[in-house]
Amino acid sequence: MVTETWRIAIVSMVQPIVERLVPVLRELGHEPVGLVSARVERNQPADLLIGNETVPPGLDLLFAADKWRVEPLLRALEPDLMVCWGFPWKLPQTALDVARLGSINLHPGLLPRHRGPVPLAWALREGDGRFGLTWHRMDAELDTGGILAQGSIPIEDDDCEITEIGPKLGAEAFRLLPAVLERVAAGDPGEPQDEALATWAGHFEDDDYARVDWSWPARRIHDQVRAWHLTFGMTPVVAPVAELGGERLRLVRTSLRDPGGAARRVDCGDAPLWIVTSEAV
Description:
Helix content: 10-25%
Number of domains: 2
Number of strands: 11
Distance between the termini: 56 Å
């Protein structure tokens, strides 16, 4: 058990994460002292972003103009540990070395599988069946540091929005956090990642996965639709696009069972699928 109180700097852009993380750290006996966030990117959902009105009480809020500004902002907070979760930039080693106990990150994938910016989308694209998460040490490369703890949750048929998935991933991450902090206190570098098992969860492109093939199984198309949704608009590609009844539609949300209302039934390769939300393109 960690017996000393640490000053903890949080690096994140995501308001729901910070809102839940701060009380958990306090319950574990630590003192979150400040939050370093990034300037808002145009394609980020504004209702999920940290702002002056949403930062938890008692925390300094610092906005970095770029990744090189993170180091001096962290130094001002004088942290014992830096905890990163939901941040878009690969940070330089000088920033990661500010805290005397180092820096740790929560990655929503089972590292070394699905390194990169959109691991949840790739878990759906590749039919993994579970969303993974990894607490790991941070180094100057992306998602390559020593593993401190891992967990996963089943992918449910109705998991379409990050607001539905995030709380379940968060609960698993918080379950693992006490053991993670014990390893940090012991100076444990974490388990090295096996490079032979590494895969890259990069941004989707304008390829075959951007177009809907109705001959595919219904579940595969359902996963395709929500996988694109979980890329969070970080690509200019409008997808996935389907041809249906002479129309070109971007599918936004689908269901494997009839949700009622105005949902539109389509017969796929093995079973029906219901289009809940779509947009003409």
